[in-house]
Every structure is written in structure tokens, then in C-alpha cells.
Give the backbone structure.
Amino acid sequence: MPAQLAFRDLTLGYERHPAVHHLDGAVEKGALIAVVGPNGAGKSTLFKGIVGVVKPLSGRVERLGLRRRDIAYLPQLAEIDRTFPITVYDLVAMGLWRQIGLFSGIGRAARERVFAAIAAVGLSGFETRPIGALSGGQMQRVLFARLLLQDAALIVLDEPFNAIDAKTTADLFELVRRWHHEGRTVLAALHDLEMVRTRFPEVLLLAREKVAWGDTAEVLTEQNLQKARRMCEAFDESAGPCRVAAE
Amino acid sequence: MYDLLIAPFLEFEFMRRALAGTVALAFGAAPVGVILMLRRMSLVGDTMAHAILPGAAIGFLVAGLDLFAMTAGGIAAGLLVALLTGVVTRLTHIKEDAALAAFFLMSLALGVVIVSMRGTNVDLLDFLFGSVLALDDETLLLIASIATVSLVVLAVIWRPLVLECVDPVFLRSVSRAGALAHIAFLGLLVLNLVGGFQALGTLLAVGMVIVPAVVGRFWAKDLTGMIVVAIATGILSAYSGLLLSYHTGVPSGPAIILVAGGLYVLSVLFGRVGGIVTGLLPRRHLEA
């Protein structure tokens, strides 16, 4: 399989502090990859770098044959203002951005697709509810419905199953499996190692730097996990310029 | 009844003008206010309203009571403060609300000093509290144009603007329009405050933006409903406030905002969505 995404000596971060440090590697088309690592390991930052929301401090992300709109992104639930008075239908319909852009109306066919996506995540009848009235699991279902409509070649999921009950997790993972079978590339940040071991063929273990990347069984060894755990989460405020970058 | 509610507007042209101006203001200011409130930027509105004062005052200093000079000065000053606040927040460790508070006090003080350099105390009162009963043709036209521009621009930037509020990271992942929409929105805010400044003065201009919007929040659960309620509140406040002022002789601008304030208090207590008294009513919980 050809690569769809490549990281070339990629460093991403905030105010010159690296959150992802000198990452190299490639994501093959159709891969199903779990990104694992402690809090602060750079998983979210890496994903934001992939979708282009965070710009590299050095190095680059190569999106091979992918336009901006071919990448669908599920932000962490915490980044969404759930008090905003918008309905389930309206939020899901934004998954059609690629077709409707800034101004186009939503025609009958598109409206059917929105209803179908809401039905596919098991929320039929919730269309006119404000998102503030949903539980955490229902909200995540709404966001998955939006992903369905985006119809993207690369799907990036930032902690999709955090604080989500077993039933919802199982339902939503079924969608992930479907995307995988359709040949889409899926990256997901996860904390549940049991789930990763049983359901994800490939793992990137990240602790600011790449600890290991490859087949799940080979990456998730006790030795690698301990190495990842030793990573210091706080930035060193007095850190000097990185020498590797200067070379 | 007729004498009480309708005659003042039929009899006096200045009352009709005042009503037309404030109703037009309500149409533009209310939707801007609803978005402002939902973005938790109410304080920004307050700051910008005061920031307009020194700009308008410089226009006054240069050209006297000239609508164009004062409006241009006000818009320039409003945009400048919007920009400076962004810079200070980004470059220093000060949070946005502190930066805003500092700017708004400075603007107010500077504006009052500049007006006093040339004008009388009457001018100063007009600057601070507006002169809604003295709207001339040009001013009316200005306010109506601002309302029209506001509604058109809001319609154009609506989708990215709403999405920028709910899920900014997602919006950035599909489009670059978010930042543009935000800037256009700040521009609309300044325009509406300049319009409000003509009628209500620098201290009360933001009243027609924020107060109706907050009332809307207590009566509707969805965005469209909030905006409809907010516009209706603005119009009702304008009409009732002018009548109140006509019959009792209190100043008109403050009367309008007082009525809006009264509607706000009623909404806090009895609003359908989250009103205090409404919440205390003994109603059985639902089955599912």
C-alpha cells in the first residue's frame, strides 16, 4: 500500500516548546492506527498538525494526494462549546461542508443524507434537540454522524472513546471498523490498551518523541510502555534551543 | 388610550424620527448582541462602545458637529481598540478582560477631555447619553444603512460565525473562513455601536446590543428564537421608552434602556428558559 501521510522530521509545539519532537514515519493508505501515549505525549498536537490547525515548528507533514477536505477530524469533546444553542441536525449537517461550503443551501437529497447519518449513529428523533440537552455519549454519536457525512479518505479521531460507556463505544467502534473496510485511513488516540490490543493492527507509541511504531504486539511491550511513562510532562521553561534542529 | 400610545408620534416629527431610528437600530444591534453574548464577549461590547468616544470626539474637535467626521473617527477608534486589545492579550500575560477594562477607562477619560476642550456641557451630555430626539435625516440614514449592512453581512458570514462559536477547531480543519468571519463580526459590532452612539451616547450605546440579547436567552432555546425575541425586545423598549420619556419628561435615551432593563428583570424572574420563579414552580417531573 502506498503512503498517504508522511512525517518528515516533524516538530510541533507551542511557543517554541516541542510537543511532538522530530517525528519520522509514514501512514499507509487504508491503515488503522492507534496513537497511544501518556497525557501530554503530543497525540492531540500531532492530530492538529495533520489537519493543519497547528503549524510545524520544523520539519513537515506531507499529505500525499490529500486535499484539506479529504481529512475528517474529531476534536476532543472538551473543545466544543456544548452550551451553544445549536440543534443536532444543524451540527451534523456541517459535515457536508465539503459540498455546501459557506453559502449553499442544503437540498432534499442532502437533507436525507443528514437524517440517514443521524439514524446510523442511533439518534433518530433527536434532530431538533439542542446539543446542550445531550449526554456525553450522545454528543459523541452526533460528532460521529458528522464524520460520516464528511466522507473523508483520512479520518483522525482524538480520544473518541474517553468517558463513553461500553455500549456506545461498541456502536461507534463498529463505524470505525466500517471505515477501515471501506479502505479509509483511520488514526485514533486511545488510552484503553486492551481495546488497542484486540482491535488495532498498528500502533504509534508517542511520548513527545516516537517510542515505537509498528505492529501492535511488537510495540505494546512492557519495556516500551515504561519508557513512554518516564516522559516528563512539563515543559522545561529554561530549555535551550534544540541542537538536532540546528543541524 | 390613543392620546397615551399613538398621538405623540402622530403629532411630533421628532418623536417619529426617534422611533424610526431606534427601531432600525434594534434590527441590526439585536442579532449582533445575541452572538456577542453567546461568545461570552459582552464586556468586549461595553469596551468598544466607550472606545468610540475619543474617535468621535477628535472628529468633533476637527470638524464640529459633523456627522461624517464623528462617525469616521468613531469607527476608526473602535477598530483600533479591538486591534490593540488583541495585541496586548497576545503579547503579554494579561487576560483579555483586564486588557479591555484598562482600555475602556482610558478611552472614556480621553474622550471626555477632548470633548471638553471645544464643546459645552450640553455637547458633553450628548456624547455621553446621545440625542435620540434630535436625529436629522443624515443620522437616520446612517442608522438605517448600518442596520441593512448588518443584516446582509450576518447572513453572509452566518455559517462560519456560528461554527466558530460551537466548534472552532473543526471549522479550522475544514475552512479558513473562521478568522475572516470573526473580523467581519467585530466590524459589525463597531458599526452598530457607532449607530447606537448617535442615538444613545457612548455610555448607553451597548444597551441596545446586549440587553435585548440577554432577554432573548431567557425565552428561546434556539438561535433563531433568541434573535427574534431580541429584536422584538429592542423595538418594544424603543417604543415604550420614548412614550415614557414623552409623558414623564425623563431623558429619552436612558428611558429606552430602562425599559429594556425592566424587561430583563422580568425575564430573569419569569423567563420560560431558566427564569428563577419559573424554576420554582411546583411541576411534576416527566415520565421519560
Q: What stands out?
A: Chain A has ten helices and nine strands. The beta strands of chain A are 3-14, 17-28, 32-36, 58-63, 71-74, 154-157, 185-190, 202-207, 209-215.
